[in-house]
Structure formats: structure tokens, C-alpha cells
Amino acid sequence: MEVVLNTILESLRDRHTDIRWAGAKGIGRILSRLPKHLASDVLCNIIKFNFNLRSGNAAWHGGCLAVAELARRGFLPLERLPDIVKILLIALVFEEPQGHHALGASVRDAACYICWSLARTFRPVDLEKYIEQIATSLVCVALFDREVNVRRAASAAFQEIVGRQGTFPNGIEILTKIDYFAVGQRCRTYLEISCQIARYSMYTQGIIEHLISFKIIHWDEEIRLLSAEALHRLCASDPSFVCAQVLKKLMPLISSESLIMRQGGVVALASTLSGLKRCGTLLDEELYENVTQIPSMVYPLCKKRTHSLGSKLMRRAMNVFIKSLSSVIPKGLIKTEDWLSCLELNFCDENEDIRKGACEAGKSFFKLYIDSSGAEFLMLRIRQVYLPQIIAAKVESDREGIAALLGVIPSEVLLLSTLSDSFAAEIIRTLTFTISGSSALDATWAYGRRSCVEAITRDIGRVLREEAMRALAIILPLAQSYSKIVDRISEAVCKIIQQSIEKIDATRECAALVMKRILQSGLKGIQEEEILRKIYLINGSNMDWRSPSCFKRLALLLKSSYYRYFALSGFIISAGGVTESTMRGASDALLSVISDIRGSRQELEIFLQCFTSILINNAGLLRVTQPLLRTLEQILSAQLLQCFEADPDSSPSLRKIVDRVAIVVRNLRSRYPIMRRNAAEQLYECLVSECDSSNEAERNKRVELLNLLSETKWNITGNEQYFVKISHSVAEIRMSSIDVTEILRASAEVKLKRPRIDISNLSTATTTPEDILAALERDESQAVVVDEATVKRIVMQLEKRCLKNREMRIKYGDEPAKFMESEIELNEAIQEMHALATQPDLYELLVDHGATTTLLQLLAHENSDVVGAVINLLQELTDVDTLNEGEDGAAKLIDVLVADQLIETLVQQSIERLDETIKDEADAIHNALSVVENVLDFRPSFSDICVEQGLFAWLLRRATQRGALDANKMFASELLSLLLQSTELARKRLTEKVDGFDLLLRALATYKRHDPGSADEREHMENLFNAVCAALMYAPNRQKFLDGEGLQLMNLMLRERKQSRESALKVLDYATNGVEGKSNCAKFIDILGELLFSGLRTIFPLFMRTPSKQKRKDSTPDEHEEHVCSVLSSLLRSCGEEGRSRIFSKFSEHEYEKVDQRVDRFDARQANLTQNNKLSDDEIEQLYLDKLDAGLYTLQRIILILADICSSAMLGCRNRAVKLFQMRTGNGKLSKHLVPVLEEYEINLGAEADEERRRTRQLIARVNGIDKN
């Protein structure tokens, strides 16, 4: 007994929660059978070793569970109650620091369990002197604990004591405020419910003291800030007590070495002083003088360690400090310069939350400058520091913060007049310039931060423009009284309207909301205000400005003469962008407006004039010109300029657009490589689209010019005269035939005349699906012709740009700005290769020209965006549907890719290198797995290569990785299951270097007591189960499964009746089946001991009741019966005599109901086989296979079980079976029913199944012997 007790007491300190819980239960059971003095000794041991200073979280948790169990069972001595209450009060606030967090939630939860148990065990008189302490502590835990489950546990314990003891002061009233649901929201408990409970005098000081002693210095910053705000509101409950606590506990925290305690002290002090001021309580001036020194003390830490945790903590603290105390401390005591320095530091912080906090603090602080001298000082600082900084700062966050700062400047300062203009006009002019983003610094940032992928996820200056617009929404209504500002206001409104139409969803939403605020503010002098109100106000609150559908509403601005230029500028950026949804929404809205005026030459000319102005004004700005040309192509493709088709020169604006585009030819001699290359590519594409001439001389010149354009290296630098000669050569070749300008004009006319099928006019009521498909096939507006020449050009272009990028990276390794352009070009080349994904018949050419080698090399590129683009291309090239269209070319492509180590390259250079926390890189990994899946679908024989080249090991790690389920994790589990089922090499490698079975079982253990949360997670779980089943087909893995306690886990899943139950049954079938399953059967019967009976109690209910299809959607009733019968048959075959006798005894229970059930199932299976037996007798092998499909395998398992029971079990089982067969068939001879199936089974056993064959023959002999006797 001593050894057992020692083991259980040690388990109370185990690191596993379930072991500690089991130990506490065991202590309760054992002490119930021990004498009182021995029980007291055990309790002393628990108190001594679980609740000392060196005990950690696990020991305290186990001790609390044990004490709660003893109290619940009534074995807690009354004389030990003082010690228990002392421990209880400590446990309710227990925390064990662990770096940047702390353990202890389980201890506090167990402490609430002790309170709950005490209420059930002791009389009210026994607990009377501890009631106040316990009540206050439970209320504080229910209000302020970080974890919701602990708050609810404290609420439940409070309710139990109120209900059973009735001794808590104001118990009923408080209980209604801190019930189970009320304490679910942390902010509400801190800021609302705590103030309600503090009205009861017994709890007031306890709540305040708890916040100051424990929560102000809590490790979680959110808790500290909430506690400070709660103190601010609680000051009204007991101001005198709060004043005492400020001097006693809060002031010392300001100088603490712990940054967490220092931050908590600063925010609590500021909030408390603000709360006391609101209550009318003033403190000594000396205290205020000491407090006002805090920003001076903190500023050096904030400034010198800008990226440290301490700096971030103190910056947030300063925001709260300045916001709270700017209106509390007398202005004469405040050192405004020091406070302003801290505030300016926070305004320019890289963290957006800190900048927002600084804005809130600035609203209060800048009110100190509303007098004349302060306003002059602030105006001077804004003009000399802030305005230049918002334009010329070298850090983007500095500009964003200053823009936000300008939005909180008091109106008294904004409306100051200067000699030339009002001060507000200067700010408006600066903010408007900021929104346009046209400074040289903006261009430098954009170039340096540009991604090599066209789909840029974050636009440079987006946050800056949003902050500037929010500031204007505040400043414009204040400044409208000055007549000189009217023009500035109109300009600002135009810029905001343009931003409300541009491509970035967040910016578009911000601009629309700013316009709504401006219109609601009553700002006067807005041009065409009625149309703006119709767009932004009428039903605008229901508009999702992030959705592409908003462009239809914004298209009304294109009909406004005043705002047309700015609206069209925004539409061009959006319609010519690369984001599919935004581009489509803006393009449809723009083309719809143009379509409405297509019949009016006058209105079209006005539109084209505006379009031309945008083109001329933004010449050289790549951000505008590229989308503009894309938008122009959409307009021409839609045939919306037909009224100018007969005479294009009749439109001056159209002629200017064509002339501007024709300037590209002169760029062949430009000193900038990118301009030369773009000009050459555009001219090349124009010549290629030209119709073939009947004149052979002209055709030869055209071919010569195409070769010259494609072979010239337009990107080389340092030889400008060379390109002058080349441009002259181009002019000489074309001089005698056709002018280049005419080519471009002809190209534009070709685009104008290109037919386009308008399927939107097709009615679904009168049109068949075949008509719609035919219309789509005739629609060649977006068709891309790909031939051998195109393939060669695209591949050569990719190789050249890849080589160039590699050279630039080697040459300028430390200067990304210099090689970024080459990566953009490389990405463009990769995107152009997507055209080949629809032409599998050209894959052979793709391989012959060496494209596969280049693509595999790019998988190791340093830029993850390039890697993602290549993987996306490979995913499209290897799409199964595409591969099946051209099998010869597809086979060559797949074979060459795999032979060149595609799988190994994907794993080592791409998948393992990419960061899945970044969405684009996670998508790239998903596409890489899709490539592997496509390869395996087309060539299943490549499964071994996937195992050998490292993919299998990665899939195993990723599929069993802890954490939330995502698309890649589920895909990994699917491929892992596929490989294990496809190749024996994967089953061997599963346990070679790492214990793969242990990883799989740990991943499955999650579903032991919890169902999957979604259909995807359910599929993931099934993939893991299938992987385990496939692995068990390799005999040596059975032992690994046994050593990893897989049997125990499957048995627990069967008992829990969760969704994993049927899959666990399937795994158990695989583990026990065949000769290789003997060790698992022996373990199940002989070694598990007591678990054996629970195992049989788990299996036999499944054996008796097959679930219906409605109840079990994860497997069919036939599959369920097959697995159960197979497991029982395996146990009977592989177990020793003791185990078999235990199984036989189960069949004798309850008047042989299990025998009855098996005979019934035998009849049903026989009938089913008879119905499905439709083949001729001479097709023996096919007949046997069909019978197996119809349920013969399950019938064989049933017959094996019945034969073994009737020949070896108790006589009653045999007699019962004979009687049932006699009643159902009129023939009670067992040999007639069982032997034919057994003989068929024995004949079809494989040559390696000698042992099973001998066993079957023995069963046949025994059954025949029964009938003879």
C-alpha cells in the first residue's frame, strides 16, 4: 500500500494533466478506505510537497485536484480547514512565469473546484470566518481572470456556495451579475460588471486592491490596459482608498526595473489620477510635479531602443499617460516640450496601433496650445517641422504619422491667419499633394519596394494617402469660412474622389467614407454636390466599397463635367490593373458608360479629350501609362469607337492618342534599356499581327525586320551608338514598304474591327447550351495563336531574361533596386508561357528547346515570388485534363521533368524554403503539391521516386503537424495516404529514420474525444486513417503499431462513439488480420489484462448492432459488418486457449443472442450472394471475384466464426446453431451450411497461406465430425 500511495502521490506532480486528474481520483478512492489518522498523513504529504515555494504549475494543479476530491468525498478534516483556505486563496491567483507568458490557468480552475467542493462538504458555521475572503476572491477571479473558463468556473463556485451555504453577503444580487454568460466577455467584466459589484461595500476595496496587486503587473499587456481603464472607472466607488493605493503601490512601480511593471504602473497611475479628477478629488501639487517628470524619464528609453520590446511598451504607456493627464495636471506644471517629444516619437512609430494611440493622445494634448502663445508655437512647429517632414521624410511611417497628427490639430490653431494665406490652406495644400503621391521620393520608394510579381499586394504610400484623407475630412469643414481656401477645398475633393475609384480596396473604402463624412459635415462650395450625394450618401451606407460592384455606382461620375477627369483617372488605374475582380468590375462599368454614348461623336470626342489629357499629363509614369494602354485595348476590343472607323483622323483626340503611342518607335534608340526593350517588343508584336503580303519582296523584308528585332540584345548598356545604327536599319528596311506609324494605325484599326460575340444577348429561355458553347467557340476576341515560332520565341525570351537576372543579381547582390527590373521582366516571361498550357501538342517542342531545364533552375531562385510563378506555371502545364489531350507530348514533358529531379527540386528548393505564414508562399506550396498529384495521376509508377527524393518525409511531417487545419495540411495528408497505398517503399520508409507511426497516432489522438470541426477536417482525418491502414500492410510495421500503443488508441476511439469510430474499427481489422497480426491479437488478449474485457465489451456491441446508413454516413453497413467479423475471426485464429475461451463465453451470454444474430446474418448474406450470382459457371475466377464484391468475404468471416464456435465452444452454442438452421431451412446439419463455403475459401487461398489452409481443413473436419456424432 505504501508503494502504491507513493506512486499515486508522485502522479499528482506529473506533467500530463490526465495523469494528475487520475491520481487525484485515486487518492480519493484510497483515502475512503484508510483509517482517519492515515488519511490525515496523506493530506499532510500533499500539502508539504505540492504547495511549497519550489512547486510548479503541475504540482499545484495536482494538489488542488486532490484536495477538491477529498473535500467532495467528505474526507477533509475540519482542523485542516485553515491551511486549506490559505492554500486556496493563493491558488485562485496562482501564476508561474514562463518567459513572455505564465502558466496557472489550470491551477486557478482547480481552486474554483475546491470552493465548489467546500460548499458541498462543510456546514455554514464551519466556513463562517472565511466567507469574506472566499467571496471577495471568487468575485475577483470571476471578473478579472484572463481565461474565460476560469471566470466561468469561479462563477459556478460562487453560485454553489450561495445556493448551499447562503452566507455570501449580497450573494443573490451579485450572482445575477456574474452568471455563466455574463462573464464570457472579458471587456464587459472589467469595465461594466466590476463597477456594478463595487457598489457593494464589502467588495469595493477587494476589487481595487486585486487590480493593483495582480492585474496591473500582469504579463499580458491587454490585461494591464484593461485594468488601468477599470481603475479609472472604479475611482468613484471609494476615492479615499484609491488615493492611498496610489501613494502606497502605484508610485513605486514607476521606477521598477521590470518594464512590464513599469508600463503597468504608468498606465494605472494616469488612469487613476484621471478618475480621481473626474470625481472631484485633487491630490497634492508635489505628487503632480513628480508625475509630470515621467515623460522625461521615459523618453531616452523610447528613443534609443526603438525596436525593443521595452520601447514598444513604454510608447504605448506614454499614449495612455498623455491622453489621460493632459486635462488633469495643471498646465503650469506640465513640461510641454518633453511631453510633445514623446508624442512626436509615437506619431512616427512603425507600429500602426501606436500611431493610432498617439492620435487619441494628441487630441487631448494639443488643447494645451489653444491660447495665443501656444497656438503660435504649434503653428511654427507645424510649418517648420511637420509639413516638410510629410513630404521629404525618408521613413514611410514618419509621413503616415505626421499626416494623422495634422488631423488632430485644434481648430484654434488651424484658423490662424498668416500674411499670405490662412494656416489651414497650407495644411490642405500639403495633404492634397500627399494624396496625389507625385513627389520624387514617392517614385524612389515605389521603385525600391516594387515586387517582381505584377500582383503587388501592398501599394506604396497607401496608408499615407488614407491618413491624409482622414485628416482632410476634419480640416476642410473647419476651414470653409475663408474665401481663399475655396479652390483648395475643390482640389482636395477631386483628389479624394479619384482615390475612391482606384484599385486598392482599402483605399477605395476609406476615400468613400471620407467623402460621406465631408458631405454630411455641411461643407459649402462643393461643385455638383447633388451627384456626389447621390453616389456617396443615398443608400451609400449599404454599399460595400471594397466590392467590385461599387464601380457601377461610381460610374455616374464619368457623366460629370467637373469630376470626369479625376474619375476617369481612377477608372483607368482600376480597369487596367492586374487584380482580376477589380479589373473586371471597373472595366465593365467604364465600358457600359462609353457604350451609352457610342452613337454620339460629340460626347465620344469629349471623353477622348479627357483620355488624351490623362495620357499627356502622365507621360513617363509607368503606374499610369501601363493601365492606360490596357484600358485603351479594352475599349478598342469592345468596338466602342465605330463612329470614327470610317475616318479616324476626324477625331483630334484619337489622332493624338495614336501619335503618342507611335512615339514608341523612336524609343528604339533611347538610352534607357527598358524603354528600348519595350519599344522593340511592341513593334515586333505589331509586325507579327500584320497580314501577309502577296509581294514576296515585302515578305522577305518583314522577316528580316522580325529577325533583327528578336536577335538584338536591347537590354545591354554602354553602347548607345549601336542602337542608333539599329534604329536606322529598321527605318531603311521599312522605308520602301510602309511607314511604322501606319503599322501602328493599322494595328489600331484591326483592333477596332475585330469581331466579338456578345453572348450577353443570348437568352437562356430560347437558347440551348450547345448554342452558347458554339458562340463561345466562335468568340476569338481573346484568342492567342500559338505555333512553333511562338514557342521558340517564348522559350528563348525566358532563357535570356533568366540569364540576365542571374547576372544582375551576381553583379549587384547588395543593391536590390538595380536587379529588381530584371526580375519584373523575368516574371513577365514566365507569365507569357501560360499560353502554352492550352497546347499539349506543343509540349515536345517545349522540351526540345530546353524549357524544362530553365524552369527547374528557377525553382531555386532567391525570390519566392518567382518560385511561386514557376510552380503555378508547372501546375497548369501538368494539369491532368490537358495532359490527356496530348498524351505523346505530355508523356515526354513529364518524363523529362521527373528525370531532371523535379520532385527533389520542388521539395528542397521550393517547398522546404517557402514560408507558409505568408499567403502567397502557402499558395505556391499548394500548387507544388498539385504538380506532384498531376504527375502521379499521369504516371503512378513515379511513386517510388517521390519517396526516394524526400517528398514522402516532408508529407509525413506536414500532415501530422500540430495546429489548425489548412489547405496544405489536408493536401499533404491526401498525398501521404496515396503514396503509402501505392508503393511498398513508402511503407518501409515510414519507420526508418523517424517513428512515422508515432506521428500518425499522435495526430489521430486529437479525434479520440473530439469530432472534426468541418467537412475538410473530416477528410483530413480519414486520410490519416487510410495512411495507417496502408502502412499496416507491411508486416514489420505491425510491431511499430503495437509498440506505439495503437491498439489502445483504437479501442478508446471505439468506446467514445465519435466520428473516428468506424475508421478505428477499420484500422483494428488491418492490425489483427493475417499471420502477421498474431502479435497484436496476443497483446489484445494476453497483455492488456483488464482492458481485454473493455475491448470485448467494445467490439461485441458493434458485432450485434450494425448501424444504418442514416446514422453512419462515413461507412456502409456492409463495410462495418465486414470489419467487425474480420476482427473477431482474427482473434479466434490467433489467440491462445485462454483468450478463445473468453470470446466463447461472450457467445454464451444472454441466451446465445450472438449466435442467433450470426445465423441471421448468414441467411441474409447467402440470399444476397444468390441474387448477385448471374455469371456462367465456366468463368470461375470472375465468378469468385463477383461474389467477393457481393459480400462473400464477410460471409466467409461469419462461417469461420460459426464453425469455430460450434466445434470448440460450449455445447449450448452448437445446439443453438443447429436448432436455428433446422427452423429456417429444415436441415439442422451444420456441414450442409458451413462446409461448402469453407471449402471454397480453402481452395482460393494463396500458396503462401499454408497455416490458414491447415486451420480451415481442421474446421471442416470438426464440422463434419459434429454431424456424424
TrEMBL record:
GO CC entries: lateral plasma membrane; nucleus
Localization terms from the record: Nucleus
Protein name (database record): Beta-catenin-like protein 1
Location, primary (coarse class): nucleus
Function: Component of the PRP19-CDC5L complex that forms an integral part of the spliceosome and is required for activating pre-mRNA splicing. Participates in AID/AICDA-mediated somatic hypermutation (SHM) and class-switch recombination (CSR), 2 processes resulting in the production of high-affinity, mutated isotype-switched antibodies.
GO biological process terms, semicolon-separated: adherens junction assembly; bicellular tight junction assembly; microtubule cytoskeleton organization; post-chaperonin tubulin folding pathway; tubulin complex assembly
Keywords assigned by UniProt, alphabetized: Chaperone, Coiled coil, Nucleus, Phosphoprotein, Repeat
Organismal lineage: Eukaryota, Metazoa, Ecdysozoa, Nematoda, Chromadorea
Domain Beta-catenin-like protein 1 N-terminal: 765-871
GO molecular function, one term: beta-tubulin binding
SUBUNIT field: Component of the PRP19-CDC5L splicing complex composed of a core complex comprising a homotetramer of PRPF19, CDC5L, PLRG1 and BCAS2, and at least three less stably associated proteins CTNNBL1, CWC15 and HSPA8. Interacts directly with CWC15 and CDC5L in the complex. Interacts with AICDA; the interaction is important for the antibody diversification activity of AICDA. Interacts with PRPF31 (via its NLS). Interacts (via its N-terminal NLS) with KPNA1 and KPNA2.
Organism encoding this protein: Wuchereria bancrofti
Family per record: Belongs to the TBCD family.
Pfam families: ARM_TBCD_2nd, CTNNBL, TFCD_C
